[in-house]
Amino acid sequence: MATTKKTKNASSKKGKENTQEQAQKTGDKAANLVKEEKKTPQSTAKNEKKPQKKSNEKNKQPNIFQRMVGFLKGVHHELRKVTWLTRDELLKQTGVVAGIVGIFTLLVWVVDSGLGALAALFINR
């Protein structure tokens, strides 16, 4: 039992030393932060309102023709990336679109004729 008490006393002394070291490190960090804050200049009216450099030149943009040429070059570059349909794929998909448009046209014509006949029936009474 004597060794247990010695171990407890030794560990408690180490714990106190560690706590003191941590407190000292924390104090040092706080002191360093305070020193850094003192080093940074306080913002004043002079610092906040610095005069902007006056430039006689407007925003340097190329003239309209150079911008148009640049735009067309960009369009050409993007169109080269496009995956174009083959002739057969184009004809098939055009046929599908024309068929769907025809079906909906027929459907709208039938509904319109039915509603027109119904309206004529109520008007002629």
From TrEMBL:
Which keywords appear in this protein's UniProt record, sorted alphabetically?
A: Cell membrane, Membrane, Protein transport, Translocation, Transmembrane, Transmembrane helix, Transport
Is the DNA repair keyword given for this protein?
no
Q: Where is this region: Disordered?
A: 1-63
Q: Note the superkingdom of the native organism.
A: Bacteria
Task: State where the protein is found.
Answer: Cell membrane; Membrane
Note whether Transport occurs among the keywords: yes
Membrane-crossing segments per the record? 96-123
Basic and acidic residues bias (residue ranges): 34-60
**Membrane topology field:** Single-pass membrane protein
Q: Where is this chain compositionally biased, Basic residues type?
A: 1-13
In alphabetical order, the GO MF annotations are: protein transmembrane transporter activity
Task: Name the GO cellular-component terms.
Answer: plasma membrane
Q: Which InterPro entries match?
A: SecE_bac, SecE_sf, Translocase_SecE/Sec61-g
Q: Which Pfam families match?
A: SecE
One GO BP on record is:
protein transport by the Sec complex
Per its database record, what is this protein's job?
Essential subunit of the Sec protein translocation channel SecYEG. Clamps together the 2 halves of SecY. May contact the channel plug during translocation.
The protein's assembly and partners: Component of the Sec protein translocase complex. Heterotrimer consisting of SecY, SecE and SecG subunits. The heterotrimers can form oligomers, although 1 heterotrimer is thought to be able to translocate proteins. Interacts with the ribosome. Interacts with SecDF, and other proteins may be involved. Interacts with SecA.
Q: Which family does it belong to?
A: Belongs to the SecE/SEC61-gamma family.
**Record's protein name:** Protein translocase subunit SecE
The protein's organism comes out as: Acetobacterium woodii (strain ATCC 29683 / DSM 1030 / JCM 2381 / KCTC 1655 / WB1)
Q: What is the lineage of its organism?
A: Bacteria, Bacillati, Bacillota, Clostridia, Eubacteriales
